[in-house]
Each structure stands twice: as structure tokens, then as C-alpha cells.
Amino acid sequence: MTEIGSGIATMRVVLEVVGGPQKGRSYVFEAHGPTRYIVGRSRLVDCPVDDDTALSREHFVIEVAPPGCVLRDLQSTN
């Protein structure tokens, strides 16, 4: 985590995929203050993963609030 000139904390979050069709891929999220990223198969989410049928359209959310973050399941049926 670093501080930028305006005093807002900046945090880098790396999501590493360990199984499935995306195995070995990493997704990087740069957050400037509290932010949330929705991940799923939909093209309308913040991080679309369209080639994994095990994911729902909106599968989970990464909630970033520097200096920490939480990955929360959106209770999808997949």
C-alpha cells in the first residue's frame, strides 16, 4: 500500500487463479480508497471471466478498504 498526494490510500490486489480454465492467470486490481469489484461471466461486471461455466454472471465481489480486502461470495447457484 502506498499513499498518494491527496492522502488517499492506494492498494494493489492480485487474484491468482489456481484451477479451472483460467488456471495460472492473475488479475490485478488497483484501488484508490474503498472500492469494490464484481467478478463473474457477465460482460457488465468489473472483471469479466467469460470462458468459465462454473462462474455465475455475478459470482463474487472483492471489497477493498486499504489496508485490507475481503472476497465475498454472492451466493450464486453455480
Output mean pLDDT: 88
Tell how many strands the DSSP assignment holds: 7
Structural class: mainly beta
| Contiguous helical run count | 0
Radius of gyration, in Å, reads: 14 Å
As a percent range, the share of strand residues is over 45%
Helix content: under 10%
Q: What spatial form do the alpha-carbon principal axes imply?
A: globular
Termini Cα gap: 34 Å
Largest sheet data: 4 strands, mixed
Descriptive account of the structure:
This protein is mostly beta strands and 78 residues long. It is built from no helices and seven strands. It has a four-stranded mixed β-sheet, with no helix packed on it. A three-stranded antiparallel β-sheet has the order 1-2-3, with no helix packed on it. Strand 6 and strand 7 form a beta hairpin. The radius of gyration is 14 Å and the shape is globular. It starts with a strand and ends in a 5-residue tail after the last strand. The mean pLDDT is 88.
